Structure formats: C-alpha cells, structure tokens
UniProtKB/TrEMBL annotation:
GO terms under cellular component: plasma membrane
Organism: freshwater metagenome
GO molecular-function terms, A-Z: phosphatidate cytidylyltransferase activity
Family designation: Belongs to the CDS family.
Protein name per Swiss-Prot or TrEMBL: Unannotated protein
PROSITE patterns: CDS
C-alpha cells in the first residue's frame, strides 16, 4: 500500500496536479454535458449559462486581484442576455445582442465612476467577449437538429488535444513552447495532441457525419491550434494578473475557466467548420 501511495505521489508531482480528482471531475462534467444535451437541450443552455456565470465571477475576482475593480452582476446580466439571444436568435441574435449590450455596459460603468474608465471598460468588454460572445458559439453548435452529435464532436476534439497533449508533455516534454506564459506546455505535448486530434477528428467526422476522413483531420488540426491558443491566452491572463489559478472550484483542475479556455476558442472554429461542410460538401 505504501508503494502505491509513493507511485501515486510521484505521478501527481510529475503531472503537476492530483490525477484521481481530476479524472472524477472530468467524468462528472461529461455526464452533465451529454445528459443535458440529449435529455433536454434547454437544460444544456442552462448548464452553459451557469458555467459562463461562474467564469465571469472568477474573471472579475481575478481582475480585483490585479487592481481592476468591476461589479459582477452587470457583466453577468449582459453575458446572460448574449447567451440567451444566441440560443433563440442564432448568429443574428448573437451579433445584435453583442452590439446593443456592450455600449450599455460601458455607459453603466461610466455612471458608476469615471476613475480608470478605459482600464475598467476595456476589461469589462474583454470579459463579455471572451466568455459570452465566444461562449455563444458553443450554443450555436448545440442548437441544431444534430446538436448532440455536434457537441460530441466538439468534446472529442478538445479531449483528444488536451488529454494527449497533457500526457505526452508529462512523459516526453523537454522543449518548452512558451516558457514565460505556460512553463509546462511543450512542443512534444503539442505533437501528442496533434496526433490524437487527427485520429479523433477523422473517426468522428467519418462515422458521425459521413464526411471524408481528411475533413475530420483538417478540423482536428484547426482544433489543436485554437485549443492551444485558448490555453495560452488563459495562462497569459493569470500571469498578467499575478495569480496561479482562477479558483479552486474544480479539484484537480483549478477554476471553471481552466476547463472553458479551450472550448471558448474552439467552438467558433468548429461551428464554422460545420457551416462550410453544410454548404460545400
């Protein structure tokens, strides 16, 4: 038993986090995602709303740690409007709600205080765009007759990249990709995620959507790029605000933002890929 504990401690030290709680949290999240989208799509909308609201709360608290004072509730309200409009209004709802909501938010912040207005307003707009606008594309992917399969494709692509990039990096990572932003991210990890995403993309698009395997490979490559960018940008935000994690809400993962970062950047690309497939293939 002591040997098992020693092995587990060594794995956790090498991985940089506790793997068992991380796996349990991941399985719980997957159950919620696929349970809601298949049982009742509006429950999936509610799930995403809750996740984005938690993300807004984490980001505004992180802002405060970095000396940027912003109220939670107005940003949550604006984000909710954009997400609901995206679900019921599609791309038009997303575009119009964003165009109307952001000026209102900026004016509201101006009425609260004129001090550091540029810093406060740009930080608030960034939060809305980062979480609500990009998050709206998750809902655009889901709100479709094939929404369950499309979310499955999104999850598989992200999981292939994140999981295999993580393990390849832990096992083989020697050459740092961006040491000043994310010291644990390596080129070996990127290659591991790329190989897995190529295979996962080919399989899911060929079997679930009856497209050619190379279409899935192309989407897989795109996913590696977007998911990696999302992860690096979230790491850059934390470094800029001088915090280690957004929160400790999810054991073994950190905050909800640590789970959303890849999805927020990948969902628009996957939505665009489906649009191209529907029009030209």
């Amino acid at each position: 038993m002591a040997d098992l504990h020693s092995i587990n401690d060594a794995i956790n030290k090498r991985a940089g986090r506790k793997l068992l709680p991380s796996i349990l949290v991941s399985l719980t999240l997957l159950t919620l995602i696929f349970g809601t989208i298949n049982l009742e799509p509006k429950l999936f909308l509610l799930l995403i709303l809750i996740a984005i609201m938690l993300g807004v709360r984490e980001l505004t608290h992180a802002y405060r740690a970095g000396g940027i004072e912003l109220p939670d509730l107005p940003i949550m309200l604006i984000a909710s409007v954009i997400l609901v409009a995206s679900w019921f209004g599609g791309t038009e709802g997303l575009a119009v709600s964003t165009g109307l909501s952001i000026p209102i938010l900026m004016f509201f912040l101006l009425m609260i205080s004129q001090k550091d207005f540029i810093k406060r307003s740009t930080s608030a707009v960034f939060a809305v765009f980062y979480l609500a606008v990009l998050g709206g594309f998750i809902l655009l992917v889901a709100n479709h007759p094939d929404g369950g399969k499309r979310i499955l494709a999104l999850v598989i692509l992200i999981a292939c990249n994140d999981t295999f990039a993580y393990f390849a990096g832990v096992l083989f990572g020697k050459h740092k990709m961006a040491p000043t932003i994310s010291p644990k991210k390596s080129w070996e990890g990127l290659v591991g995620g790329l190989i897995a995403s190529l295979i996962g993309g080919a399989l899911v698009f060929q079997n679930a959507f009856e497209t050619q395997w190379y279409v899935g490979c192309a989407v897989g490559v795109m996913t590696v790029i977007t998911a990696t960018c999302g992860d690096l940008i979230e790491s850059a935000i934390k470094r800029d605000l001088a915090i280690k994690d957004m929160s400790n809400l999810l054991p073994g993962h950190g905050g909800i933002m640590d789970r959303l970062d890849s999805a927020l950047f990948t969902a628009p690309a996957v939505w665009f890929a489906f649009e191209l497939i529907n029009r030209y293939l």
